Amino acid sequence: MLLLETVKCTGNVWMDVLYLVIGLIVGVVAGLLISRKLVKKQLKDNPPINEEMIKTLMRGMGRNPSQKQVNQMMKQMQRFQ
Questions:
Q1: How far apart are CA 43 and CA 35, in angstroms?
Q2: What is the pLDDT of residues 49-74, one digit of tens each?
């Protein structure tokens, strides 16, 4: 009830509803665009794991990976995503 007392109505209920709907649509569109931009930035800064990263990781553990092992690791990574 307190919320209704603080909201100023224009007197025309349909105009108030229209403003509310337009505000919600603008908010959703702005939110989608901002989140899309943030996700693209995050993927650019932290790219997903590729074959070169797996080879480097396995070499760091003292193993010389074959292409078959790299392919197996890639399939496992894709399964977890």
A1: 12
A2: 888 888 898 899 988 888 998 899 88
